[in-house]
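Whiteboard transcription, Tuesday session. T.W. wrote the structure tokens on the left side:
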């Protein structure tokens, strides 16, 4: 899993650096496919419940699961890039949100708060803590900034399968759920909206959008619980 995570980090670095005005989300997907092939990793999203691509590319009011295609990125957009790979049977899952060229102050703040909320979740992911301590820490890092946290999509256990037990909400009271133990592997993935937390699914049956058309950001890391700080597998 460590090696899967390392490769995925590398791939996401390449994808982020490729983001610029005029590139299409489909071109980013093709780049992801190439980078995976070079490293001998398989895409975990492609074919998952029929999902048709290597990455999810979610732009502006798209929260998650945007399907890459002909959409052209414009200066000022924000794009969430979510990717999963399998190396020797082990999974890693990670996402980032980046601006396209110069973005608004509000978009910057949204991205920063979302990134920081993931860090707060990672900080709470310690042996002896309860699962919902993570959820609570994430929520606490979001709502004081006036943003909302998506309820209908959650983080998850991960290992040989991309989605394993337990589900990990990005909100809720602390002190509930299983006690965290060294060796557990989880993917934390806060989704944060400028407006209300409610979502809708596009007619393509995949793309999840905000209900009010306001923008949304998403970050994700795969990590393992240790005796001390969690070990984040999807960054060096
Ligand atoms: N990171 C997303 C998740 O954990 C990726 C799933 S998208 C799909 O749910 F394409 F694979 F369905
Ligand atoms: Co995930």
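and on the right, the sequence the group agreed on:
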């Amino acid at each position: 899993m460590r090696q899967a995570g390392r490769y995925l980090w590398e791939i996401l670095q390449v994808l982020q650096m490729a983001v610029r005005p005029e590139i299409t989300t489909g071109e980013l997907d093709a780049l992801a496919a190439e980078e995976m092939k070079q490293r001998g990793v398989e895409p975990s999203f492609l074919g998952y419940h029929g999902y048709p691509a290597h990455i999810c590319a979610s732009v502006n009011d798209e929260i998650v699961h945007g399907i890459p295609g002909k959409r052209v990125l414009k200066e000022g957009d924000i794009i969430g890039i979510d990717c999963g790979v399998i190396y020797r049977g082990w999974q890693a899952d990670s996402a980032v949100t980046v601006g396209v060229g110069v973005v608004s102050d509000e978009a910057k703040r949204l991205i920063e708060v979302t990134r920081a909320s993931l860090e707060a979740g990672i900080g709470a992911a310690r042996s002896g803590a309860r699962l919902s301590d993570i959820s609570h820490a994430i929520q606490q890092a979001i709502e004081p900034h006036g943003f909302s946290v998506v309820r209908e999509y959650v983080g998850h256990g991960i290992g040989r399968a991309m989605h394993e037990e337990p589900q990990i909400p990005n909100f809720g009271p602390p002190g509930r759920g299983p006690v965290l133990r060294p060796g557990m592997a989880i993917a934390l993935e806060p989704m944060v909206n400028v407006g209300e937390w409610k979502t809708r699914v596009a007619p393509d049956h995949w793309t999840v959008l905000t209900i009010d058309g306001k923008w949304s950001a998403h970050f994700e890391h795969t990590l393992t619980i240790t005796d001390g700080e969690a070990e984040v597998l999807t960054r060096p």
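Someone added at the bottom: The chain is about 25% helix and 25% strand.
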